[in-house]
Amino acid sequence: MGVPRDKIDWCPEIDYDKCDYCMECDEFCPHRVFERRDGEERKLVVANPTNCVVFCRACGKTCGPDALSFPDKKETTALIKKLREELVQDG
Amino acid sequence: MGNEKYAILPCNGMDKEAGALARETALRLSARQAGEIVCPVLYHRSAKKYGKLLESSPLLVIDGCRTACASNLAKESGARITRRLNITDYLKGRGIKPGKSLELSTELLDETHRILEELLETDSEEGKAAIAADFTAPLEYETFTQDKYIFRVPRQGFLFNENDCWARVDGTRARIGISDFVQNSASDFLFFEPPQVGAAIEQFGEAGSLESTKTALDIISPFSGTVVAVNAELAEAPETINGDPYEKGWAVELELADFEGERELLMDCPSYLGYLKKKVEREFHKKERE
Ligand code: SF4
Ligand code: SF4
Fold first, then answer.
1. CATH number of A5-90: 3.30.70.20, 1.10.486.10, 1.20.810.10, 2.60.40.790?
2. Per residue in A31-46, pLDDT tens?
3. ipTM of this predicted structure
4. Which of these, A4, A33, A67, B9, could form a disulfide with A19 (CB 3.0-4.6 Å)?
5. From ligand 1's centre to the CA of A70, what distance in Å?
6. Alpha helix positions (H), chain B
């Protein structure tokens, strides 16, 4: 995208009121975005948000209780474009 | 065009100036022994008449306007178009707006020289740019292997997003599909759920979905636009994508909404090849560790 990945806010967010820790999402995603925390109350966390592929929403489909949500696509696209322009201006 | 002789199917040229120019271009090409003309009216009446010619020669279609009767005629009778030229688009690129008159002005007749030169001069980059690539033009690929997998990426003419989906642009249209990487990792596709024709799709929005023996995934559109066609063949044979993800395995055709504004967020072929190599290496190292 021509913008440092850590400037782009894109990753799944887990709604802990809905999540039943089935771990389908973690099993699905090949990018080590999630991490399991055995013995803790929140047994699954988004540990590596910048590993998530921008605009991917694939794990969301695997989630039965619909506990995963993503940022707004349009806003993210607009943000990336803005950041790109700033980078160009700064040389 | 090289030394190959074409079967040339032009617009019949009886409706508008651009059509008349299409007809004129075809006549001159044939006078220069560059090909043999297929009369659109006779072809429409009896495609059989040209069966032999079309079997042995590549087909060049010259459309006058965007209605593209000649292209549609060829498609309807199942002919494979090798090369396509749209006079209206060509003239637009030259800053000329054709009118209604069927008698060609000297200005337009001058243009025919230019078109002929560009058509006959295969090596000129300018010529290639002026005559838009067709979706059916044959592709060349870069390949690399990792373990038992072979990955292919076209050499040029495609744009990719980081979600491993591609767009092949021709004028204001683009075909959308998935890359060899997705195809390899998903294994055999069983089902393609296309978007509605006429639906508006956002950049990075969903343009249909796929299910394979291993997984389900969305096609993430590199561009925004309106769905003008979906690949009907995939309903019968979704595994076409596995065999040929960049050509026969295209999924959706879009009328683009903002090509210039959106392309900057995409990768060209060499960039995607680099991106893909890194990604594949990472995944295979990970597998080794596990
Ligand atoms: S959106 Fe895609 S990359 Fe991100 S966590 Fe989910 S599956 Fe992984
Ligand atoms: S798939 Fe959904 S319910 Fe299952 S662990 Fe992931 S977020 Fe929780």
1. 3.30.70.20
2. 899 999 999 999 999 9
3. 0.84
4. A67
5. 10
6. 17-31, 40-45, 51-56, 69-76, 87-93, 106-120, 125-130, 180-186, 233-236, 240-243, 259-263, 269-289
